[in-house]
Amino acid sequence: MPAACESVLEDIEDIVSAENLKPHDRQFVRRNVFPKVRKRNSQKNAQTDDEPPSDSIIPGVQKIWIRTWGCSHNNSDGEYMAGQLAAYGYKITDNSDEADLWLLNSCTVKNPAEDHFRNSIKKAQEGKKKVVLAGCVPQAQPRQEYLKGLSIIGVQQIDRVVEVVEETIKGHSVRLLGQKKDNGKRLGGARLDLPKIRKNPLIEIISINTGCLNACTYCKTKHARGDLASYPIEELVDRAKQSFQEGVCEIWLTSEDTGAYGRDIGTDLPTLLWKLVEVIPEGAMLRLGMTNPPYILEHLEEMAKILNHPRVYAFLHIPVQSASDSVLMDMKREYCVADFKQVVDFLKEKVPGITIATDIICGFPGETDEDFQETMKLVELYRFPSLFINQFYPRPGTPAAKMPQVPAAVKKQRTKDLSQLFHSYNPYDHKVGERQRVLVTEESFDSNYYVAHNPFYEQVLVPKDPLLMGKMVEVNIYEAGKHFMKGQPVSDARVHTASISRPLAKGEVSGLTEEFRRSAQNGTKWKAQPNAEIPVKTRLSSWMALQLPWQQEGGGLKILSVSLALLAVLLMLYYGGMKTEL
């Protein structure tokens, strides 16, 4: 009996290109694909192998565990991947032990995040789990040794996660790392109308663009997300409308730099925001994501008006990173401390009570004690209620990693000193006794309270009354901590229900029509209708499942597999007939 073989397809980009070739064209690309085949140890023959041959595995029925690290953009990608897999038939599980496959969605900002990612890969392999990797780490450095032989789904290829998971379950190693393009122009990424499973059914995370216009010397994310590519305004507005129709009451706009939005497509952030506020229902709120100082400077007047809108949180995340101009120059941040102060001072004057959050890196290469003291003075001056303090970590392949480094002990001490300063003041003490309007959207980590936010996106803990969830209510503030306030609902106050429809259940897939839901539940085929909101077509395979529209593009590998199977059957019938005649 011949030894069993395992085929490893290192990269199927040659079969299915980033430009999504037509199936006919892919037939001519096949000649350039050379799957590697390695024989297993002869002592481990097919009779003793625990895994069934790949052609006997039925994809779409396995359990998948998804772990995401990093920013809200990454979390949005994770939600989209979960939604597509669930719509296809896979079961998304919170139990990593019972999962057949782990989908690990990584972050490359800091060394500890990548360390967690690497350790998870090792744990999955030790547990004999199938593994698919996603996020910025494999996109930026796909040839790292610990990623060798593993399937990778690129940050702009998340609409093809089903394809990658299916092939991985069959035992193949698949890598899709290409960019989405239209007539040679890079797009923002996968479509926004893909199915998704929101981690919180009340909160929709919308990525308005990917990449940025900067070249910060410490940033590894740029290697993964690339240059700026924005989504059209109409697509973003449509996504917001759909979210509200599915019971969402809070929208987060995210990207690597929201302030740069639209510069590549002839528009800008204020134009987008004015269009979005038109469709926000009463009782719902919009939160802006991070923006760097250079791009917000051009729109201060308009941004102040938008941040004063009753359905937009008066909150803005503006990373300063350092209060030393020499350090900012070494970082290539493209602004000076005076620019940052101008933005903050203007918004504080024009948007009373606004919350300004910022980031600071401690111990960047070349940072002197004098440089660090300037940063301490800046924090003392503004007393930021939300401050993200990061000890500098040199990321491989970045210019900053090649610069003379600040000693580790000095970096650690500066991080400690800044943290002590941050914890020396309480930003909310003066708000005790106030009456505030808050939107309740989630449960606290300790499960003792519900979490709400006031118009300045300050966290307010309220009693765990299920009637409050998803509602906008008035509360009396009776206690304040470093990062939160506690409020008691006012009995005679009006309650706003932001949702124009019932929120989806936790784990329920967003973006699927009722007709599709019924057909999926009944296990029947669903024929595409010309005006269907999300058309689907029956998948061509020996097992009954549904192929969704986002898989119709780039489905060459599946079409090829089915075609070969049909050809084999025809040949068997043909030669069988010849033998009968003989």
TrEMBL record:
Membrane topology field: Single-pass membrane protein
| Stretches assigned to the MTTase N-terminal domain | 62-170
Q: Which UniProt keywords apply?
A: 4Fe-4S, Endoplasmic reticulum, Iron, Iron-sulfur, Membrane, Metal-binding, S-adenosyl-L-methionine, Transferase, Transmembrane, Transmembrane helix, tRNA processing
> Catalysed reaction per UniProt?
N(6)-L-threonylcarbamoyladenosine(37) in tRNA + (sulfur carrier)-SH + AH2 + 2 S-adenosyl-L-methionine = 2-methylsulfanyl-N(6)-L-threonylcarbamoyladenosine(37) in tRNA + (sulfur carrier)-H + 5'-deoxyadenosine + L-methionine + A + S-adenosyl-L-homocysteine + 2 H(+)
Q: EC annotation?
A: 2.8.4.5
Would the keyword Iron-sulfur be found if you checked this record's keyword annotation? yes
One Pfam family hit: UPF0004
Residues annotated as transmembrane: 556-576
- Which InterPro entries does this one have? Elp3/MiaA/NifB-like_rSAM (IPR006638), Methylthiotransferase (IPR005839), Methylthiotransferase_CS (IPR020612), Methylthiotransferase_N (IPR013848), Methylthiotransferase_N_sf (IPR038135), MiaB-like_arc_euk (IPR006466), rSAM (IPR007197), rSAM_horseshoe (IPR023404)
Q: How is the cofactor bound here?
A: Binds 1 or 2 [4Fe-4S] cluster. One cluster is coordinated with 3 cysteines and an exchangeable S-adenosyl-L-methionine.
* Cofactor requirement: [4Fe-4S] cluster
Q: Which CDD domains match?
A: Radical_SAM
Extract the SUPFAM superfamilies matched here: Radical SAM enzymes (SSF102114)
Q: A single Gene Ontology molecular function, please?
A: metal ion binding
Q: Which residues form the TRAM domain?
A: 429-491
| Entry similarity comment | Belongs to the methylthiotransferase family. CDKAL1 subfamily.
Report the function annotation for this chain: Catalyzes the methylthiolation of N6-threonylcarbamoyladenosine (t(6)A), leading to the formation of 2-methylthio-N6-threonylcarbamoyladenosine (ms(2)t(6)A) at position 37 in tRNAs that read codons beginning with adenine.
What is this protein called in UniProt? tRNA-t(6)A37 methylthiotransferase
